[in-house]
Amino acid sequence: GRRASLPGLTLRNCSLSTAPALWRSRAAYGLACTSGNRFDARRSGVYVKTGPRAPQRMPRSRDAVRFGASEVGSVDLRGRRVASIVSDIYAFAVSQDVDGTAIRSFLAAASEGESDQHAVGLGLGAGDVLWSLTDAEHAGDPLQAVINRLSGDCREFQALTSAPGEERFPAVDLAVDGRATYLVVPGTGIIRHEFVPDSPCP
Fold first, then answer.
1. What parts of the chain have a pLDDT lower than 50?
2. What angle do CA 184, 190, 192 make, to 5 degrees?
3. For position 4, what pLDDT does the model report?
4. Which residues does residue 57 pair with via DSSP β-bridges, in sequence order?
């Protein structure tokens, strides 16, 4: 490996909320910005920087705006597509072209009542397929890790469930390489996973 510097990513009163995702001369990343001592949702978000150009803030999806989701926890980049997890009480997985067009998103997690969900993994696969991983805890039920896959208008999911009494999630992160899917499994490490949806699209 080698070390590479990426100057000019941050803005005044902003700091990185994710590690940058790189594709050739392009970087995508999350910024958390403040105004005084308060979180500045208008400047925070997903940014893309291409070569020496100034960083460009990506628009949020309609649902992310509606529910005030502006904290960026994950990003991925593949060609001209950038993906992100933006969250508040609700978390959304979002993908779009680097010029801010062709936005696609879905609800990836929600924490309310006796349910606690967190979108912890994200990946862009071949064919602009958007993946996410959600760790879910429901009162009285085993822990779950839910893999979501959005391809075109088809959204599918696969729920992985811990054994009764197990206090670890079945998976805590996700990565995609082309058409291959990988999971980070506590106590095991990184495994290649065959995605088998619980309810396949027609």
1. none
2. 100
3. 73
4. 47
Look-up of token digits 């060609």: 79
Vertex 148 angle, CA 117 and 173, to 5° = 65
Q: How far is 65 from 1, CA to CA, in rounded Å?
A: 39
Q: Which residues of 28-61 are buried (b: 16+ CB within 10 A; e: fewer)?
A: bbbbbbeeeeeeebebbbbbbbeeeeebebbebb
* pLDDT single digits (tens) 173-187: 999 998 899 999 999
> What pLDDT score does 179 carry?
84
Structure tokens at 2: 């080698």
Length of the chain: 202
How many whole angstroms separate alpha carbon 109 and alpha carbon 94? 12
Print the SS3 string covering the chain: CCCCCCCCCCCCCEEECCCCEEECCEEEEEEEEEECCEECCCCCEEEEEECCCCCEECCCCHHHHHCCCCEEEEEEEECCEEEEEEECCEEEEEEEECCCCCCEEEEEEECECCEEEEEEEEEEEHHHEEEEEEEEEECCCCCEEEEEEEECCEEEEEEEECCCCCCCCCCCEEEEECCEEEEEECCCEEEEECCCCCCCCC
Structure token pair of residue 98:
């680097």
Cβ atoms 123, 140 nearer than 8 A: no
